[in-house]
């Protein structure tokens, strides 16, 4: 690259300035290179492929149940590669639909008690593509009532439907939601978009109450269960299953990449909605299908997770034990009813510094969560214990935090 090429278009200079600004604001994200060891999750190797450093205990993985290192799940991937090759070779419409896709969609629909399911290449795409497609339908005029803390992927879908209107309601605030529903024109098609477990504060929506409001004001309900699938409900069908309200939700969206430990996203709903999305959603139609080497382990994982209640029991036992240890040590954390344990720091620089020192001095990894992901003054380390964090690992983390806070 010569200077001449870099200066040819003003965008080069724009990028240089923007990067400097992000750095000055302390928002420059740098990757930490970590490789998971399947045989000893949650222990990872730190460093690059050429130079391995000390092993690190990771406290920030979203593979909440360890499904991604389950031998049966890994073997399903290995066997699928051997049998079917590495990639999918096409979109679902162009030589990309495998019997495994169909089986996984049926499994997910069954998990949520819905008629049908549709796979997407990620949870992000499932939200973005489904919401954008729904909100561009019926010649526009939709009004979306969107929880203030909804994930970026839902916001992308809502904003992407340019003819539709978006009204943001206060986080998990039923009174505010009802006021806003009541104030909207009765004739407009309405949709309420929300999550079950919110991943930063670990708080949980009252799904039944939101669905009751939806019925009262004739709104469609769209629920993101990304941080709950696999973990809540007697078969891991999410909070809607735990609360026995899945049948009241029109569209349930989830990921195969967090609690199920593999990769991919999906929606489940009544047949006509799923068929419409299959035929109309650009983000479904025009992208190569998930490869069988991903779908096979995902299917194995969902089936196993549905049966293996011990994983959910063990996860919550570990979470409660860890919370108890933090409490005894006087470390400030958000007491939530979910599996997410935010340790509050309250300052962006300090949060980054503590995370860095945990890694360098104690070989412990916990991601710092700063503005704009959370409000200023509520910066935190987001810890996610899993069934394989031992008491000794917990004690190490508690001791390290005690010495750093
Ligand atoms: C991670 C996440 C997604 C996206 O899921 P991926 O499968 O990682 O693309 C969607 N919604 C929420 C709330 C998330 O946290």
TrEMBL record:
What this protein needs as a cofactor is: pyridoxal 5'-phosphate
Which InterPro entries does the entry mention? Answer: 4pyrrol_synth_NH2levulA_synth (IPR010961), Aminotrans_II_pyridoxalP_BS (IPR001917), Aminotransferase_I/II_large (IPR004839), AON_synthase_class-II (IPR050087), PyrdxlP-dep_Trfase (IPR015424), PyrdxlP-dep_Trfase_major (IPR015421), PyrdxlP-dep_Trfase_small (IPR015422)
Q: Which residues form the Aminotransferase class I/classII large domain?
A: 55-401
Name the UniProt key words of this record, in alphabetical order. Answer: Acyltransferase, Heme biosynthesis, Pyridoxal phosphate, Transferase
Q: Where is the signal peptide?
A: none
Q: How does it assemble?
A: Homodimer.
Name the UniProt record assigns to this protein: 5-aminolevulinate synthase
Name the catalysed reactions: succinyl-CoA + glycine + H(+) = 5-aminolevulinate + CO2 + CoA
Q: Which PROSITE patterns match?
A: AA_TRANSFER_CLASS_2
Record flagged with keyword Protein biosynthesis? no
Q: What is its EC number?
A: 2.3.1.37
| Keyword Transferase among UniProt keywords | yes
The entry lists its GO molecular-function terms as: 5-aminolevulinate synthase activity; pyridoxal phosphate binding
Q: Name one Pfam family in it.
A: Aminotran_1_2
Recorded family membership:
Belongs to the class-II pyridoxal-phosphate-dependent aminotransferase family.
Q: Which domain of life is it from?
A: Bacteria
Q: Which GO terms describe its biological process?
A: protoporphyrinogen IX biosynthetic process
Q: Which CDD domains match?
A: KBL_like
Q: In which pathway does it act?
A: Porphyrin-containing compound metabolism; protoporphyrin-IX biosynthesis; 5-aminolevulinate from glycine: step 1/1
Under the heading SUPFAM superfamilies, the entry gives:
PLP-dependent transferases
């Amino acid at each position: 690259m010569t200077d001449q090429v870099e200066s040819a278009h003003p965008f080069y200079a724009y990028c240089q300035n923007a990067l400097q600004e992000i750095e000055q604001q302390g928002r420059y994200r740098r990757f930490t290179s970590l490789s998971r060891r399947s045989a000893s999750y949650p222990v990872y190797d730190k460093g690059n492929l050429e130079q391995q450093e000390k092993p690190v205990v990771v406290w920030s993985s979203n593979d909440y149940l360890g499904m991604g290192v389950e031998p049966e799940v890994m073997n399903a991937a290995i066997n699928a590669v051997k049998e079917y090759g590495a990639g999918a070779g096409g979109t679902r419409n162009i030589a990309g639909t495998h019997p495994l896709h169909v089986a996984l969609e049926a499994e997910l629909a069954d998990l949520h008690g819905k008629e049908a399911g549709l796979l997407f290449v990620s949870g992000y795409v499932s939200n973005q593509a489904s919401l954008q497609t729904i909100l561009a339908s019926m010649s526009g005029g939709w009004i979306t009532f969107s929880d203030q803390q909804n994930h970026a992927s839902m916001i992308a879908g809502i904003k992407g439907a340019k003819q539709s209107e978006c009204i943001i309601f206060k986080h998990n605030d039923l009174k505010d939601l009802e006021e806003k529903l009541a104030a909207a024109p009765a004739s407009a098609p309405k949709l309420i978009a929300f999550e079950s477990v919110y991943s930063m504060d670990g708080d949980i929506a009252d799904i039944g109450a939101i669905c009751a409001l939806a019925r009262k004001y004739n709104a469609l309900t769209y629920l993101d269960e990304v941080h709950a699938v696999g973990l809540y409900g007697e078969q891991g069908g999410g909070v809607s299953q735990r609360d026995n309200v899945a049948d009241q939700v029109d569209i349930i969206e989830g990921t195969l990449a967090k609690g199920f430990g593999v990769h991919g996203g999906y929606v489940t709903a009544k047949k006509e909605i799923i068929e419409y999305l299959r035929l109309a959603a650009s983000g479904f139609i025009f992208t190569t299908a998930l490869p069988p080497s991903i779908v096979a382990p995902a299917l194995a994982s969902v089936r196993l997770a549905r049966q293996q209640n011990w994983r959910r029991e063990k996860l919550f036992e570990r979470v409660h034990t860890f919370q108890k240890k933090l409490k005894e040590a006087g470390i400030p954390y958000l007491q939530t009813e979910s599996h997410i344990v935010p340790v509050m720091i309250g300052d962006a620089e300090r949060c980054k510094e503590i995370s860095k020192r945990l890694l360098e001095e104690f070989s412990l990894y916990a991601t710092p969560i700063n503005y704009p992901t959370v409000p200023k003054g509520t910066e935190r380390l987001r810890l996610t214990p899993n069934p394989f964090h031992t008491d000794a690992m917990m004690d190490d983390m508690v001791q390290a935090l005690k010495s750093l806070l």
